[in-house]
Amino acid sequence: MAEASASFMDKLQEWMGLHVMPVADKMNNQAHLKAIRNAMTLLIPLTIVGGFAVLLAQPPITEGSTNPILLAWQSMALSLGNYLWIPYFLTMGALSLYTVAGVAYFLAENYGLNSFVNAITALATFLIVSDAYDGETGTLVLGQFGAGYMFSAIIVAFIVVEINRFFIERDIKIKMPETVPPNVTAPFEVLFPFITNVVLMSAVNYACHAATGAGFTSLVFTILQPLMSATGSIPSVMVINFLISFFWFFGIHGDNMVAAVTTPITTAAIAANAEAYAAGEAIPYTFAGAASTVFGQWCFFLSLQFVMLFVCKSSRLKSLVKVSLVPSMFNINEPGVFGIPTVLNIFVFIPQVICCMLNYLVYALAANAGLVGKFVIAAPWTTPGPINALLATGFDFRAVVLWFVLFAVNFVLAVPFLKAYDKQLLAEEAAE
To answer: For residue range 305-328, what is the model confidence (pLDDT) as tens digits?
Structure first.
């Protein structure tokens, strides 16, 4: 029976190597997906600073509260409000500006083009088609640069870089005499593609206005908003969590595999949540920021460490937990992933799938029912799970309680599987 199981796993691993690994490699190296993934990483500090700025300016205090710390916090927020809101409005409140520049930069870098020139061109083009300019006052409307327009920013970045690439590969440019210094010729070399980008995108924006009454960026936002809600639905996130565990089982970085698709959605969602939190409105999105990870992979892997610490007896797992427990407390799970290992380890895969899907299901149902807060702040990813849950929900202590309850459930569910694996390791050690 064991030989048949091993044979099946070998065949499955071989099939994954032949059919899935090449697809995974192509996705990881695909220029546009890679640019999105890198640009989203670039936005992390902005979302963290913006989120904490909201928290400082909008303290979690209820009417009639007598807590002296919260009252002092509220007094400080009222007196310094004009200054405290600035970091939020110019980070999370203008996330699309950084997105268009970041995506264009990394896509151009992947093509071997001038990254800075492409980033500036994309930023200028996006500003022109954003409908942010108010002709009456001569000012820009900051609301047109919010997270809701991130997807149109990504599209503009793609179009701009591809057009620039088209011109450069065909050497279509204003050619200056060789005696002219490169720093003088460079702006003229990008003039043709820049004009093309401005004219083309302005024409598209005009056509959108004429046909629908809304500009290009607003139209993209309207079209993709239902997609955000659909992707953030509980069944969708459950599938995403399963895929992450499934890919990790075969040694494929599951988080990287889905990040190019999910990160723009979760980033836009947490920015929208922060905006609603700042306005005192209902928080719209559950699948936002690191919600599915804090209550998913991070919670499960830490519980796994404690099972190894208190239940397992094999020298391998006892030795491993000494070096992997502390990193896992800060969401650095690679020592455990590669030390246990989790790759092709059915004793870890089964509880991982069950726990990660169960954790998010419980959190999502509780959040949608108003029993715990939704994520409105992006905390640094190395922030321990319960502290992350506390900060991200705007100091909702109920989220911390829920995290520890799920941690305990994960511990109990993982025990029989890890004990079976530990028994196998003990037999191998005895044989040696």
So the answer is: 999 999 999 999 999 999 899 999
pTM over 0.85: no
* HSE of 35, CA atoms in CB hemisphere, 13 A: 26
User: Checking phi first, is residue 172 left (phi over 0); if not, alpha (psi -120 to 50) or beta?
Assistant: beta
- How far are the Cα atoms of 21, 128, 156, 264 from residue 220, in angstroms, in the given order? 33, 16, 11, 14
Please tell me whether the peptide bond between 341 and the residue prior to it is cis, using omega within 30 degrees of 0: yes
Beta strand residue intervals within 132-187, DSSP E: 133-134, 139-140
pLDDT value for 294: 95
Task: Look at phi and psi of residue 141 and say left if phi exceeds 0, alpha if psi is from -120 to 50, else beta.
Answer: beta
Residue 266, token pair as written in the block: 């979760």
Cβ atoms 411, 307 nearer than 8 A: yes
Q: Which tokens in the block code for residue 94?
A: 């203008």
* Inter-residue contact 97 to 157 (CB < 8 Å): no
SS3 140: strand
Q: Does residue 53 contact residue 85 with C-beta atoms inside 8 Å?
A: yes
Cα R_g (the chain), whole angstroms: 25
